[in-house]
Amino acid sequence: MFSKFQSRQITPEESSSYVGVPLEGLLGKLFGKENEEEAIAVFRKRYTEVCFDKTTLIKGAKELLLKLKGENKTLSVATNKTGSISRELLTHLQIIGLFDYVYGVFDGLEGKPSPEMINKIVEMTAIPKESTILIGDSPIDIMTAKNAGIHICAVASGNHEYGELKGYNPDYLFKEISQILP
């Protein structure tokens, strides 16, 4: 997209800063509102070509999910990726069966940091908000949890540093996902 609309290559650092941010709005801001729809189409086409080869689980994620599921916890996903692609990715990663609900954009709900997906999950699971916790690795996740009125456990295992996440005042903060459960 940067090659097409700005005649330049994007750096890995710059790319990381956009992870988790909804495409709608972001791409209009970066490439002009008049180019937003085309930029989204270009991104989604390329993403569907590479996502299965390029997406891997964060070290310790599957172990955490298995432990939580073994404790009869209800697990769900709220993502700014499209819901259909997210469900395909979770199937590809062989963990779809661990989740009760998977919501993403184009599932009829607003993307994060809107609380809409979280509110839908709370409604569907009937788990009170005070017993609900979002585990995420970005400022958008922290904002989403706060907007929804639930707890947030931030993990600096993605594209955002521990210090950056700390600045958003999450309820819990870990450097690695393996530290969440002993």
Overview of the structural elements:
The protein is of the alpha/beta class. The protein has two domains: 2-54; 61-179, Rossmann fold (3-Layer(aba) Sandwich), CATH 3.40.50.1000. The chain has nine helices and five strands. The chain has helices at residues 2-6, 12-18, 23-31, 36-54, 61-70, 83-92, 116-125, 139-148, 162-166; strands spanning 76-82, 101-105, 133-136, 151-155, 172-174. The strands form two sheets. It has a three-stranded parallel beta sheet. The protein has a two-stranded parallel ribbon with strand order 1-2. The chain starts with a helix and ends in an 8-residue tail after the last strand. The mean pLDDT is 91.
Task: Using brief descriptors, characterize the structure shown.
single chain; 182 residues; alpha/beta; Rossmann fold; 2 domains; three-stranded parallel β-sheet; two-stranded parallel sheet; 5 strands; globular
